[in-house]
Each structure stands twice: as structure tokens, then as C-alpha cells.
Amino acid sequence: MPNQLEFEKPMLQLKNKIKELEKLAKENNIDLSSEIEVLRTKLENMKKEVYSNLTPWQKVKLARLQERPTTLEYIEKLLSDFIEFHGDRLYGDDSAIVGGIGVLDNIPVTVIGHQKGKGTKDNIKRNFGMPHPEGYRKALRLMKQAEKFNRPIITFIDTPGAYCGLGAEERGQGEAIAVNLIEMSKLKTPIIVVVIGEGGSGGALALGVGDRISMLEHSIYSVISPEGLSSILWKDASLAEKAADIMKLTAQDIYKLGVIDKIIKEPLGGAHKDIDLTTNNIKEYILEELPKLMSLDSETLLEKRYEKIRKIGVWK
What we know:
The chain is an alpha/beta fold.
């Protein structure tokens, strides 16, 4: 049973009403088609109204939805001949970050992304999408390999943040993230970043340095979670909704701030409602930008990336 978001309940009630009328018409052999059509039209209009006017907190809820497609689901639909690689060659493998090589429309690419679980057992295995240092070091190993063989890199961001447990800190969590930021800024191969769900703090940034950065329509990107911010500002995590309103964390806010280059359209109701359409929209964006980046020599590519990074946060 999918998670039911609070703001979706009126739509669900109307949908159930339509089903009841359809069942009634069938069982009693009566024509209720005009009444049903009126309700269907009302439902579609309600959906358009609701999903085009979501509050920041509602977007947070939608971005965190368990039914939302994950990195591996997008990889399965985007790439052919995908081979997943494991391990950082230093400590171990981290299931919260997945990566490997595959073919996107006849272009060999390296794809890396955060991976959340689809249920309790899977979430425990994936550590709820919160990577350890070995996850980031695995990602860097694959990026360096991509640079060596001149393969473009695509990263998918979907994490509440890097794991802050004792073991992760002992193994150098901060250092692993910092090294990724430095090395990604210098990689001599194109990098395209797509935020597909949550973009949380340094845990997201460690895969987020790119030549093109995009976000799905209902994804979020922030330096801290709304719960974390409200705990710091007001000593009360229950004020997360209030925090979300002031954080400018939605794709639309981030685009206005000039941090990202593109908002990728989602189907009505969110990416989970039609993963094929969402995947096609992502693919269309990547294939539009990738040839432009691949046509640049490495010196120009790095120069443009440097300029892009330097412009983020500039106040005029």
C-alpha cells in the first residue's frame, strides 16, 4: 500500500467515489457515465491545482516518498549493458552508493548515485541512502576510471545526508566528502548531475559538482534538513514545516538562485506515478547537454566548470 500524503487525501476520496459509481453502474446495469465523467474532470482539475501549488513542506514529503524511483530504477531504464562495480579498494563496499558503467544511446557512460531502499529490510541494507566514507571513495574510484577511459559521468543525488555515525567519522567522513569536491572539480571528463529526490548537505554535494546540474520538479536540495534547521533555530524539530518555508530548498527556488541549470518535468503527482515518462525526460535532458560537453577540449571544459562553480552564491 503506497504511503498516503496528507494533501492527497481529498483526491483519493474523489477517486474512491468514482470507483464506487463505476461499480454501482456495472452491478445494476445503469448508465452513470455523465456523472462519472463530471467527477473525473473534477479530479483532474484538482490534481493540476494541488500539484502546481505545493508548499515547500509538501515538496519535502513528496521528495522523501518511498515509492519515488531510485537510482537503480532509473539506471535500469536508461542504460543498456549496465555493469555495477563494488568496493573502494580501501575498506569495503557501501550499498548506499551504487555505480558502474553502461551505454546510453550508444554513448558509454559511468553512472553513480545514492540508493535508498524500497522497504524496511532494503533500507537497512542501503542505510536509508546515507553513505559511509567508503561509498564516496567508491564513487571517486569510478570517476577516476571514467576520466582514464574518457567516459562522461552521470550522477543521481538522493540522500538525507552523509551518515554521521561513529564508524563513519572514524574512517574520515569529512575528508572523503572534501576530497570528492576537489577531485570532481578537476576531472577532465563531462559531469552531469541530476537531483532525483532529496539533496541533503555535504552528503549530496560529494556527488554534486558538475558541468550541468538539474533537479526533478518535486525534488529538494538544501544544506540541512528542515527538521535539523528547526532544531537549531527554535530548539524544536516539530517546526520543520515552518523551516521548510524559509529554506528555499525546492527546485524552483534553487533554479532562481542560479545553483542549477534545469528543472526536469515530472508527471502529474510525482515521478512515481509514471517512471517511464520521468526517465524519458531525464534522458532527453542528458542527451541534449552531453554532446555539447563532449565537444569541448578538457581545458575549456575545466575552465567553464570553474567559472560555473565560482558564480554560485554570488550576490549582485
